[in-house]
Protein backbone atom coordinates (compact mmCIF):
# COMPACT_ATOMS: atom_id res chain seq x y z
CA UNK A 1 0.00 0.00 0.00
CA UNK A 2 2.77 2.38 -0.92
CA UNK A 3 2.57 5.51 -3.05
CA UNK A 4 5.04 6.19 -5.83
CA UNK A 5 6.60 8.79 -3.51
CA UNK A 6 6.94 6.20 -0.68
CA UNK A 7 8.65 3.77 -3.04
CA UNK A 8 11.21 6.22 -4.42
CA UNK A 9 11.82 7.60 -0.94
CA UNK A 10 12.36 4.11 0.50
CA UNK A 11 14.86 3.24 -2.22
CA UNK A 12 16.92 6.39 -1.54
CA UNK A 13 16.77 6.83 2.24
CA UNK A 14 20.32 6.35 3.52
CA UNK A 15 19.35 6.79 7.18
CA UNK A 16 16.93 8.67 9.43
CA UNK A 17 18.24 11.83 11.12
CA UNK A 18 17.02 13.82 14.14
CA UNK A 19 14.13 16.31 13.60
CA UNK A 20 12.25 13.93 11.28
CA UNK A 21 14.79 14.42 8.55
CA UNK A 22 16.03 11.73 6.19
CA UNK A 23 19.42 11.57 4.53
CA UNK A 24 18.33 11.01 0.95
CA UNK A 25 20.61 9.74 -1.80
CA UNK A 26 20.48 11.87 -4.97
CA UNK A 27 20.88 10.18 -8.34
CA UNK A 28 21.12 13.22 -10.59
CA UNK A 29 22.22 16.71 -9.59
CA UNK A 30 21.56 19.36 -12.23
CA UNK A 31 23.20 22.73 -11.88
CA UNK A 32 22.95 26.10 -13.63
CA UNK A 33 24.79 29.39 -13.45
CA UNK A 34 22.45 31.26 -11.08
CA UNK A 35 22.34 29.06 -7.98
CA UNK A 36 25.68 27.28 -8.12
CA UNK A 37 28.46 29.92 -7.65
CA UNK A 38 28.17 30.24 -3.84
CA UNK A 39 27.91 26.46 -3.51
CA UNK A 40 31.27 26.00 -5.26
CA UNK A 41 32.80 28.82 -3.19
CA UNK A 42 31.58 27.00 -0.07
CA UNK A 43 33.28 23.80 -1.21
CA UNK A 44 36.53 25.63 -1.83
CA UNK A 45 36.39 27.41 1.55
CA UNK A 46 36.01 24.05 3.29
CA UNK A 47 38.61 22.39 1.14
CA UNK A 48 36.14 19.83 -0.15
CA UNK A 49 35.57 18.47 -3.60
CA UNK A 50 32.62 17.23 -5.67
CA UNK A 51 31.88 13.68 -4.52
CA UNK A 52 30.34 12.36 -7.75
CA UNK A 53 31.00 14.74 -10.64
CA UNK A 54 29.68 12.12 -13.08
CA UNK A 55 26.23 12.36 -11.41
CA UNK A 56 26.25 16.13 -11.77
CA UNK A 57 25.35 17.92 -14.99
CA UNK A 58 25.63 21.62 -15.81
CA UNK A 59 23.95 23.90 -18.34
CA UNK A 60 23.88 27.67 -18.75
CA UNK A 61 20.36 28.86 -19.41
CA UNK A 62 19.05 31.77 -17.33
CA UNK A 63 21.44 34.49 -18.45
CA UNK A 64 22.34 33.42 -21.96
CA UNK A 65 21.42 35.75 -24.81
CA UNK A 66 19.09 34.23 -27.40
CA UNK A 67 20.98 35.72 -30.34
CA UNK A 68 24.60 35.28 -31.45
CA UNK A 69 25.57 32.80 -28.74
CA UNK A 70 28.46 31.71 -30.97
CA UNK A 71 30.10 35.11 -30.42
CA UNK A 72 30.99 33.88 -26.94
CA UNK A 73 30.60 34.90 -23.33
CA UNK A 74 32.79 38.02 -23.64
CA UNK A 75 30.11 39.45 -25.95
CA UNK A 76 27.53 39.61 -23.10
CA UNK A 77 27.38 43.22 -21.94
CA UNK A 78 25.55 42.69 -18.65
CA UNK A 79 28.23 42.17 -15.97
CA UNK A 80 26.19 39.90 -13.67
CA UNK A 81 25.17 37.61 -16.51
CA UNK A 82 28.68 37.39 -17.91
CA UNK A 83 30.20 36.69 -14.49
CA UNK A 84 27.68 33.97 -13.61
CA UNK A 85 28.24 32.15 -16.88
CA UNK A 86 32.03 32.46 -16.71
CA UNK A 87 32.03 31.27 -13.10
CA UNK A 88 30.12 28.12 -13.96
CA UNK A 89 32.52 27.42 -16.81
CA UNK A 90 35.54 27.67 -14.53
CA UNK A 91 33.88 25.66 -11.73
CA UNK A 92 33.11 22.91 -14.21
CA UNK A 93 36.75 22.76 -15.26
CA UNK A 94 38.06 22.83 -11.70
CA UNK A 95 35.70 20.10 -10.45
CA UNK A 96 35.51 18.06 -13.65
CA UNK A 97 31.75 18.37 -14.11
CA UNK A 98 30.12 17.35 -17.39
CA UNK A 99 27.68 19.68 -19.11
CA UNK A 100 27.15 22.14 -21.91
CA UNK A 101 28.66 25.57 -22.41
CA UNK A 102 26.97 28.56 -23.98
CA UNK A 103 26.59 28.04 -27.71
CA UNK A 104 27.02 24.25 -27.45
CA UNK A 105 24.65 22.72 -29.94
CA UNK A 106 23.01 20.59 -27.23
CA UNK A 107 22.66 23.32 -24.60
CA UNK A 108 19.30 24.62 -23.45
CA UNK A 109 17.03 25.03 -20.43
CA UNK A 110 18.04 22.57 -17.71
CA UNK A 111 14.56 20.98 -17.44
CA UNK A 112 14.37 20.44 -21.19
CA UNK A 113 17.92 19.19 -21.69
CA UNK A 114 18.06 16.59 -18.87
CA UNK A 115 15.02 14.52 -19.91
CA UNK A 116 16.13 14.75 -23.54
CA UNK A 117 19.62 13.42 -22.69
CA UNK A 118 18.31 10.46 -20.66
CA UNK A 119 19.50 12.04 -17.39
CA UNK A 120 15.97 11.81 -16.04
CA UNK A 121 14.84 8.23 -15.55
CA UNK A 122 12.03 6.47 -13.64
CA UNK A 123 12.61 5.98 -9.92
CA UNK A 124 15.42 8.53 -9.70
CA UNK A 125 15.86 11.33 -7.21
CA UNK A 126 16.77 14.48 -9.13
CA UNK A 127 17.58 17.87 -7.64
CA UNK A 128 18.64 21.25 -8.95
CA UNK A 129 18.92 24.71 -7.43
CA UNK A 130 15.78 25.55 -9.34
CA UNK A 131 12.13 25.30 -8.35
CA UNK A 132 10.90 23.84 -11.64
CA UNK A 133 12.89 20.64 -11.09
CA UNK A 134 9.40 19.26 -10.41
CA UNK A 135 9.23 18.81 -14.22
CA UNK A 136 11.23 15.58 -14.00
CA UNK A 137 8.46 13.94 -11.97
CA UNK A 138 6.72 13.28 -15.28
CA UNK A 139 9.01 10.24 -15.62
CA UNK A 140 7.95 8.61 -12.34
CA UNK A 141 10.95 10.24 -10.67
CA UNK A 142 11.16 12.49 -7.61
CA UNK A 143 12.51 15.84 -8.80
CA UNK A 144 12.55 18.96 -6.68
CA UNK A 145 14.25 22.31 -6.27
CA UNK A 146 16.82 23.01 -3.55
CA UNK A 147 18.56 26.11 -2.17
CA UNK A 148 22.19 27.07 -2.73
CA UNK A 149 23.35 25.69 0.67
CA UNK A 150 21.75 22.38 -0.26
CA UNK A 151 23.44 22.51 -3.68
CA UNK A 152 26.75 22.62 -1.81
CA UNK A 153 25.69 19.66 0.38
CA UNK A 154 24.73 17.58 -2.66
CA UNK A 155 27.95 18.47 -4.48
CA UNK A 156 29.97 17.37 -1.47
CA UNK A 157 28.05 14.24 -0.48
CA UNK A 158 25.54 13.30 -3.23
CA UNK A 159 22.93 13.29 -0.46
CA UNK A 160 20.45 15.73 1.03
CA UNK A 161 18.95 16.20 4.51
CA UNK A 162 15.23 16.58 3.99
CA UNK A 163 11.86 16.00 5.67
CA UNK A 164 9.61 13.73 3.67
CA UNK A 165 6.86 15.76 1.99
CA UNK A 166 3.23 14.65 2.28
CA UNK A 167 1.45 13.05 -0.66
CA UNK A 168 -1.46 14.63 -2.54
CA UNK A 169 -3.28 12.62 -5.17
CA UNK A 170 -5.02 14.75 -7.77
CA UNK A 171 -7.37 12.77 -9.96
CA UNK A 172 -8.48 14.50 -13.14
CA UNK A 173 -11.82 13.34 -14.48
CA UNK A 174 -13.54 13.97 -17.81
CA UNK A 175 -12.27 15.15 -21.16
CA UNK A 176 -11.33 18.76 -21.83
CA UNK A 177 -12.26 20.56 -25.08
CA UNK A 178 -10.19 20.06 -28.25
CA UNK A 179 -7.93 23.09 -27.90
CA UNK A 180 -7.25 22.56 -24.21
CA UNK A 181 -3.72 21.37 -23.49
CA UNK A 182 -1.73 20.29 -20.43
CA UNK A 183 -0.89 23.96 -19.80
CA UNK A 184 -4.56 24.84 -19.48
CA UNK A 185 -5.12 21.88 -17.16
CA UNK A 186 -2.11 22.96 -15.06
CA UNK A 187 -3.59 26.48 -14.73
CA UNK A 188 -6.99 25.02 -13.84
CA UNK A 189 -5.48 22.82 -11.13
CA UNK A 190 -3.69 25.84 -9.63
CA UNK A 191 -6.87 27.92 -9.77
CA UNK A 192 -8.80 25.10 -8.07
CA UNK A 193 -6.44 24.31 -5.18
CA UNK A 194 -4.86 27.79 -4.98
CA UNK A 195 -1.30 29.07 -5.30
CA UNK A 196 -0.51 27.61 -1.87
CA UNK A 197 -2.86 24.62 -2.07
CA UNK A 198 0.06 22.24 -2.58
CA UNK A 199 2.38 23.53 0.16
CA UNK A 200 4.08 20.64 1.95
CA UNK A 201 2.99 18.09 -0.65
CA UNK A 202 4.24 16.18 -3.65
CA UNK A 203 1.35 15.96 -6.10
CA UNK A 204 0.74 12.72 -7.98
CA UNK A 205 -1.46 13.31 -11.03
CA UNK A 206 -3.81 10.43 -11.87
CA UNK A 207 -6.84 9.63 -14.02
CA UNK A 208 -7.66 8.81 -17.63
CA UNK A 209 -6.55 12.25 -18.83
CA UNK A 210 -3.05 11.56 -17.51
CA UNK A 211 -2.93 8.05 -18.98
CA UNK A 212 -3.71 9.51 -22.42
CA UNK A 213 -1.30 12.46 -22.01
CA UNK A 214 2.04 12.66 -23.89
CA UNK A 215 5.35 12.91 -22.01
CA UNK A 216 5.63 16.56 -23.07
CA UNK A 217 2.19 17.24 -21.58
CA UNK A 218 3.09 15.42 -18.36
CA UNK A 219 6.26 17.53 -18.07
CA UNK A 220 4.22 20.73 -18.50
CA UNK A 221 1.81 19.63 -15.78
CA UNK A 222 4.53 18.57 -13.32
CA UNK A 223 6.51 21.74 -14.12
CA UNK A 224 3.69 23.91 -12.78
CA UNK A 225 3.07 21.90 -9.58
CA UNK A 226 5.36 24.55 -8.07
CA UNK A 227 2.89 27.30 -8.94
CA UNK A 228 0.40 25.49 -6.71
CA UNK A 229 3.01 25.64 -3.94
CA UNK A 230 3.87 21.92 -4.09
CA UNK A 231 7.39 20.57 -3.70
CA UNK A 232 6.98 18.47 -6.80
CA UNK A 233 4.59 16.79 -9.20
CA UNK A 234 4.76 13.23 -10.46
CA UNK A 235 3.13 10.76 -12.82
CA UNK A 236 3.41 6.96 -12.65
CA UNK A 237 5.53 5.14 -15.20
CA UNK A 238 3.57 3.52 -18.02
CA UNK A 239 4.01 2.49 -21.65
CA UNK A 240 4.05 6.17 -22.75
CA UNK A 241 7.05 6.75 -20.48
CA UNK A 242 8.85 3.66 -21.74
CA UNK A 243 8.20 4.50 -25.41
CA UNK A 244 9.57 8.00 -24.89
CA UNK A 245 12.69 6.72 -23.12
CA UNK A 246 13.31 4.14 -25.81
CA UNK A 247 13.51 7.02 -28.27
CA UNK A 248 15.50 9.46 -26.17
CA UNK A 249 17.55 7.61 -23.56
CA UNK A 250 18.26 4.00 -24.45
CA UNK A 251 16.26 1.74 -26.75
CA UNK A 252 17.47 -1.46 -25.08
CA UNK A 253 17.23 -0.56 -21.41
CA UNK A 254 14.63 -2.10 -19.10
CA UNK A 255 12.85 0.57 -17.07
CA UNK A 256 10.87 -0.23 -13.93
CA UNK A 257 7.10 0.27 -14.22
CA UNK A 258 7.00 2.23 -10.98
CA UNK A 259 3.57 3.25 -9.75
CA UNK A 260 1.53 3.61 -6.60
CA UNK A 261 -0.13 0.45 -5.26
CA UNK A 262 -3.89 0.34 -5.90
CA UNK A 263 -4.57 0.60 -2.16
CA UNK A 264 -1.85 3.21 -1.49
CA UNK A 265 -2.67 5.67 1.29
CA UNK A 266 -2.21 9.37 0.47
CA UNK A 267 -2.20 12.26 2.92
CA UNK A 268 -4.79 14.08 0.82
CA UNK A 269 -7.06 13.31 -2.12
CA UNK A 270 -8.48 15.87 -4.56
CA UNK A 271 -10.67 15.19 -7.59
CA UNK A 272 -10.87 17.86 -10.28
CA UNK A 273 -13.38 17.71 -13.11
CA UNK A 274 -11.92 18.92 -16.39
CA UNK A 275 -14.78 17.80 -18.59
CA UNK A 276 -15.31 20.33 -21.39
CA UNK A 277 -12.61 22.61 -19.95
CA UNK A 278 -11.88 25.57 -22.26
CA UNK A 279 -8.36 27.05 -22.64
CA UNK A 280 -7.29 29.09 -19.60
CA UNK A 281 -5.67 32.52 -19.33
CA UNK A 282 -4.29 34.23 -16.22
CA UNK A 283 -5.66 37.73 -15.67
CA UNK A 284 -3.71 38.77 -12.55
CA UNK A 285 -0.28 38.62 -10.97
CA UNK A 286 -0.63 35.27 -9.24
CA UNK A 287 -0.79 31.95 -11.14
CA UNK A 288 -4.14 31.11 -9.52
CA UNK A 289 -5.83 34.20 -10.98
CA UNK A 290 -7.13 32.25 -13.92
CA UNK A 291 -10.20 32.49 -16.19
CA UNK A 292 -11.63 30.56 -19.08
CA UNK A 293 -10.69 32.25 -22.35
CA UNK A 294 -14.30 33.35 -22.96
CA UNK A 295 -14.70 34.79 -19.46
CA UNK A 296 -14.52 38.33 -18.16
CA UNK A 297 -12.16 39.57 -15.44
CA UNK A 298 -13.88 38.37 -12.25
CA UNK A 299 -15.39 40.87 -9.84
CA UNK A 300 -14.16 41.11 -6.26
CA UNK A 301 -15.92 38.52 -4.08
CA UNK A 302 -18.69 40.19 -2.05
CA UNK A 303 -17.35 38.80 1.25
CA UNK A 304 -13.84 40.18 0.72
CA UNK A 305 -11.91 41.86 3.51
CA UNK A 306 -10.46 45.37 3.17
CA UNK A 307 -7.00 43.86 2.63
CA UNK A 308 -8.30 41.60 -0.14
CA UNK A 309 -10.03 44.57 -1.78
CA UNK A 310 -6.80 46.59 -1.77
CA UNK A 311 -4.88 43.66 -3.22
CA UNK A 312 -7.49 43.16 -5.94
CA UNK A 313 -7.37 46.85 -6.89
CA UNK A 314 -3.60 46.76 -6.98
CA UNK A 315 -3.65 43.75 -9.33
CA UNK A 316 -6.10 45.42 -11.73
CA UNK A 317 -4.12 48.66 -11.65
CA UNK A 318 -0.84 46.88 -12.36
CA UNK A 319 -2.41 44.80 -15.13
CA UNK A 320 -4.21 47.84 -16.60
CA UNK A 321 -7.63 46.18 -16.59
CA UNK A 322 -11.04 46.65 -15.07
CA UNK A 323 -13.43 44.28 -13.40
CA UNK A 324 -15.79 42.67 -15.94
CA UNK A 325 -13.51 43.38 -18.91
CA UNK A 326 -13.58 40.69 -21.56
CA UNK A 327 -10.34 38.69 -21.82
CA UNK A 328 -10.80 38.30 -25.58
CA UNK A 329 -10.67 42.09 -25.96
CA UNK A 330 -7.24 42.41 -24.36
CA UNK A 331 -4.71 43.93 -26.81
CA UNK A 332 -1.39 42.10 -26.73
CA UNK A 333 1.97 43.66 -27.66
CA UNK A 334 4.28 40.68 -27.35
CA UNK A 335 3.93 36.92 -27.51
CA UNK A 336 6.53 34.67 -25.91
CA UNK A 337 6.64 31.02 -26.92
CA UNK A 338 9.28 29.45 -24.72
CA UNK A 339 10.33 28.43 -21.15
CA UNK A 340 10.70 25.05 -19.45
CA UNK A 341 6.89 24.84 -19.34
CA UNK A 342 6.23 25.05 -23.07
CA UNK A 343 9.24 25.03 -25.38
CA UNK A 344 9.40 21.36 -26.29
CA UNK A 345 8.90 20.12 -29.82
CA UNK A 346 5.24 19.29 -29.22
CA UNK A 347 4.59 22.88 -28.14
CA UNK A 348 6.32 24.28 -31.21
CA UNK A 349 4.44 21.89 -33.49
CA UNK A 350 1.12 22.97 -32.04
CA UNK A 351 1.85 26.69 -32.35
CA UNK A 352 3.23 26.22 -35.89
CA UNK A 353 0.12 24.30 -36.97
CA UNK A 354 -1.91 27.42 -36.14
CA UNK A 355 0.53 29.94 -37.62
CA UNK A 356 1.10 28.01 -40.85
CA UNK A 357 0.42 30.24 -43.85
CA UNK A 358 -0.62 33.18 -41.67
CA UNK A 359 1.00 36.40 -40.47
CA UNK A 360 1.20 37.73 -36.94
CA UNK A 361 -0.59 41.04 -36.34
CA UNK A 362 1.22 44.16 -37.52
CA UNK A 363 2.77 45.95 -34.55
CA UNK A 364 2.91 42.81 -32.38
CA UNK A 365 6.13 40.90 -31.93
CA UNK A 366 6.40 37.19 -31.23
CA UNK A 367 9.53 35.51 -30.00
CA UNK A 368 9.98 31.75 -30.40
CA UNK A 369 12.68 30.38 -28.11
CA UNK A 370 13.17 26.61 -28.42
CA UNK A 371 14.01 24.91 -25.12
CA UNK A 372 17.19 23.23 -26.33
CA UNK A 373 19.51 22.77 -29.27
CA UNK A 374 17.84 19.43 -29.98
CA UNK A 375 14.38 21.03 -30.09
CA UNK A 376 15.71 23.78 -32.37
CA UNK A 377 17.28 21.25 -34.75
CA UNK A 378 14.15 19.15 -34.94
CA UNK A 379 12.02 22.24 -35.49
CA UNK A 380 14.28 23.27 -38.35
CA UNK A 381 14.19 19.79 -39.91
CA UNK A 382 10.41 19.63 -39.66
CA UNK A 383 10.02 23.03 -41.30
CA UNK A 384 8.56 24.63 -38.16
CA UNK A 385 11.21 27.34 -38.05
CA UNK A 386 10.23 28.33 -41.60
CA UNK A 387 6.59 28.56 -40.63
CA UNK A 388 7.42 30.82 -37.68
CA UNK A 389 9.75 33.02 -39.68
CA UNK A 390 7.30 33.36 -42.57
CA UNK A 391 4.59 34.30 -40.10
CA UNK A 392 6.82 37.16 -38.90
CA UNK A 393 8.08 35.61 -35.65
CA UNK A 394 11.52 36.13 -34.25
CA UNK A 395 13.30 32.72 -34.13
CA UNK A 396 15.85 32.66 -31.29
CA UNK A 397 18.54 30.46 -29.77
CA UNK A 398 17.74 28.33 -26.67
CA UNK A 399 17.57 29.68 -23.10
CA UNK A 400 15.17 30.87 -20.39
CA UNK A 401 14.84 34.22 -22.15
CA UNK A 402 11.72 36.26 -21.47
CA UNK A 403 10.42 33.72 -18.94
CA UNK A 404 12.31 35.70 -16.31
CA UNK A 405 14.06 38.49 -18.24
CA UNK A 406 17.59 37.96 -16.91
CA UNK A 407 18.97 38.61 -20.39
CA UNK A 408 18.05 41.25 -23.00
CA UNK A 409 14.62 39.70 -23.69
CA UNK A 410 12.29 41.85 -21.64
CA UNK A 411 8.91 43.54 -21.64
CA UNK A 412 8.83 47.31 -21.43
CA UNK A 413 6.67 48.95 -18.74
CA UNK A 414 2.95 48.46 -19.52
CA UNK A 415 3.65 46.12 -22.40
CA UNK A 416 1.17 43.25 -22.38
CA UNK A 417 2.42 39.76 -23.14
CA UNK A 418 0.76 36.42 -23.84
CA UNK A 419 3.39 34.05 -22.52
CA UNK A 420 3.67 30.27 -22.44
CA UNK A 421 5.87 30.49 -19.32
CA UNK A 422 4.84 29.74 -15.74
CA UNK A 423 5.08 32.89 -13.61
CA UNK A 424 3.11 36.12 -13.86
CA UNK A 425 4.11 38.16 -10.81
CA UNK A 426 4.87 41.89 -11.07
CA UNK A 427 8.00 42.53 -13.10
CA UNK A 428 8.66 38.89 -13.91
CA UNK A 429 9.14 39.57 -17.62
CA UNK A 430 10.54 43.07 -17.19
CA UNK A 431 9.73 45.98 -14.89
CA UNK A 432 6.12 47.08 -15.29
CA UNK A 433 5.44 44.33 -17.86
CA UNK A 434 2.05 42.59 -17.86
CA UNK A 435 1.95 38.83 -18.27
CA UNK A 436 -0.93 36.58 -19.27
CA UNK A 437 0.01 32.91 -18.99
CA UNK A 438 -1.42 30.87 -21.86
CA UNK A 439 -0.92 27.65 -23.81
CA UNK A 440 1.13 27.49 -27.03
CA UNK A 441 -2.09 27.22 -29.08
CA UNK A 442 -3.60 30.34 -27.50
CA UNK A 443 -0.24 32.13 -27.86
CA UNK A 444 -0.24 31.45 -31.61
CA UNK A 445 -3.88 32.51 -32.13
CA UNK A 446 -3.24 35.62 -30.05
CA UNK A 447 -0.24 36.57 -32.18
CA UNK A 448 -2.40 36.44 -35.31
CA UNK A 449 -5.27 38.45 -33.83
CA UNK A 450 -3.22 40.93 -31.79
CA UNK A 451 -5.47 40.28 -28.82
CA UNK A 452 -6.15 37.23 -26.63
CA UNK A 453 -7.74 34.76 -29.04
CA UNK A 454 -9.08 31.20 -29.10
CA UNK A 455 -7.42 29.00 -31.78
CA UNK A 456 -10.85 28.42 -33.39
CA UNK A 457 -11.01 32.15 -34.27
CA UNK A 458 -8.11 31.82 -36.69
CA UNK A 459 -8.63 28.35 -38.14
C1 LIG B 1 16.83 31.34 -10.93
C2 LIG B 1 16.09 30.24 -10.27
C3 LIG B 1 16.53 30.14 -8.86
C4 LIG B 1 14.58 30.36 -10.42
C5 LIG B 1 13.81 29.20 -9.80
O1 LIG B 1 14.25 28.49 -8.91
O2 LIG B 1 12.70 28.96 -10.16
C6 LIG B 1 14.17 30.51 -11.87
O3 LIG B 1 14.42 29.38 -12.63
C7 LIG B 1 12.73 30.92 -11.97
O4 LIG B 1 11.97 30.32 -12.75
O5 LIG B 1 12.35 31.87 -11.28
S1 LIG C 1 12.53 28.71 -18.20
FE1 LIG C 1 11.77 30.06 -16.62
S2 LIG C 1 10.88 28.76 -15.08
FE2 LIG C 1 12.15 27.49 -16.36
S3 LIG C 1 14.10 27.40 -15.31
FE3 LIG C 1 14.21 29.08 -16.79
S4 LIG C 1 13.58 30.87 -15.64
FE4 LIG C 1 12.97 29.12 -14.41
TrEMBL record:
Pfam families assigned to the protein according to its UniProt record, in alphabetical order: Aconitase (PF00330)
Superkingdom: Bacteria
Domain Aconitase/3-isopropylmalate dehydratase large subunit alpha/beta/alpha: 6-450
PROSITE patterns documented for this protein: ACONITASE_1, ACONITASE_2
Classification via InterPro entries: 3-IsopropMal_deHydase_lsu, Acnase/IPM_dHydase_lsu_aba_1/3, Acoase/IPM_deHydtase_lsu_aba, Aconitase_4Fe-4S_BS, Aconitase_4Fe-4S_dom, IPM_dehydratase_rel_enz, IPMI_cat
Alphabetized UniProt keyword annotations: 4Fe-4S, Amino-acid biosynthesis, Branched-chain amino acid biosynthesis, Iron, Iron-sulfur, Isomerase, Leucine biosynthesis, Lyase, Metal-binding
EC main group: lyase
EC number of this enzyme: 4.2.1.33
UniProt pathway: Amino-acid biosynthesis; L-leucine biosynthesis; L-leucine from 3-methyl-2-oxobutanoate: step 2/4
Catalytic activity: (2R,3S)-3-isopropylmalate = (2S)-2-isopropylmalate
GO term, biological process aspect, one: L-leucine biosynthetic process
GO molecular function: 3-isopropylmalate dehydratase activity; 4 iron, 4 sulfur cluster binding; isomerase activity; metal ion binding
Keyword Metal-binding listed: yes
Needed cofactors: [4Fe-4S] cluster
Task of the protein: Catalyzes the isomerization between 2-isopropylmalate and 3-isopropylmalate, via the formation of 2-isopropylmaleate.
Family statement drawn from the similarity comment of this UniProt entry: Belongs to the aconitase/IPM isomerase family.
Subunit record text: Heterodimer of LeuC and LeuD.
PANTHER family: 3-ISOPROPYLMALATE DEHYDRATASE, HOMOACONITASE, MITOCHONDRIAL-RELATED
Name of the protein in question: 3-isopropylmalate dehydratase
Gene it is expressed from: leuC
Amino acid sequence: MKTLLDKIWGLHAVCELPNDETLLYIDTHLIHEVTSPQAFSGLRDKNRTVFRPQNTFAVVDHNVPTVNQSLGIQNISDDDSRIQITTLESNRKEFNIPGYSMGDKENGIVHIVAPERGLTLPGMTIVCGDSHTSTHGAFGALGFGIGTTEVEHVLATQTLRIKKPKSLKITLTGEPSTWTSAKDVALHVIATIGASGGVGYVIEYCGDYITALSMEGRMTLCNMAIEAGARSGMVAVDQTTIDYLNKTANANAKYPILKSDPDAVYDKLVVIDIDGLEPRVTWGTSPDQVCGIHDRIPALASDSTKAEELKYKRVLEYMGMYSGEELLSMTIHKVFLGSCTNSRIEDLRLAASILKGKRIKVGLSMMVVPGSGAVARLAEEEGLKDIFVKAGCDWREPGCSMCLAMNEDKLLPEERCASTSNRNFEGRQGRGGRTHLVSPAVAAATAIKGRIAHPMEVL
